[in-house]
Amino acid sequence: MFKESFRGFILGFATTFKHLFRKPVTEQYPEYKRPLPARSRARIILTRDPDGDERCVACYLCSAVCPVSCISMQSAERGDGRRYPRWFRINFARCIYCGLCEEACPTLAIQLTPHFETCEREVLKLVAEKEDLLVNHGGKNNDYNFYRCAGVAMVGDKGTHINEENPVDVKSNLP
Ligand code: SF4
Ligand code: SF4
User: Fold this and answer.
1) pLDDT tens digits for range 24-63
2) CB distance 59 to ligand 2 below 6 Å
3) Which atom of ligand 1 is the closest one to the Cα of 102?
4) CA 61 to ligand 2 center in whole angstroms
């Protein structure tokens, strides 16, 4: 026990001692901005699919999962059944950049970017509306198109599609 503690003590001081003779590394920010990995979690954007349509389907999953409740929106529906957010708001003054909204999003609409220089003196300027968030590209995955996989609106009744079974009448299960 004593031997192990002593070993840990010596190793700790050896690491400190080693750094005494190393050349200091000072990055001259903001003159030099270190390139950050694409997966860095900072400023949030709303992306578009390859057809140029906004990807967000206003499913509210991101706002439900957000631990600090800083995302809000109102859903709307186009004539062809495609959903979209009438407005979409993120309060960056509350955001903790945890990335949970990006994880939850089924359409890859909401994405975090490495852009971290978002400080403002007035806190209200940190409230971003849809027009501030929406970009003209697909972000990390330009090719993904949620509606090409899922379809926009259901065609035909339940049970009429290929390999689809007829819906169960749940009342038939009652005693
Ligand atoms: S990164 Fe986290 S805190 Fe920020 S909006 Fe997304 S879920 Fe909320
Ligand atoms: S950003 Fe994604 S998770 Fe949030 S409402 Fe839009 S589609 Fe749903």
Assistant:
1) 889 999 999 999 998 999 999 999 999 999 999 999 999 9
2) yes
3) 6
4) 6
Buried b / exposed e over 11-30, threshold 16 CB at 10 Å, is eeeeeeeeeeeeeeeeeeee
Ligand nearest to the CA of 105: 2
Whether 59 is in the pocket of ligand 1, judged by its Cβ within 6 Å, is no
| Residues forming beta bridges with residue 76, ordered by sequence position | 84
**pLDDT over 80 (residue 66):** yes
- The model's confidence at residue 116, banded by pLDDT at 50, 70 and 90, is very high
Beta carbon of 97 within 6 Å of any ligand 1 atom: yes
Q: Which ligand has the nearest atom to the CA of 88?
A: 2
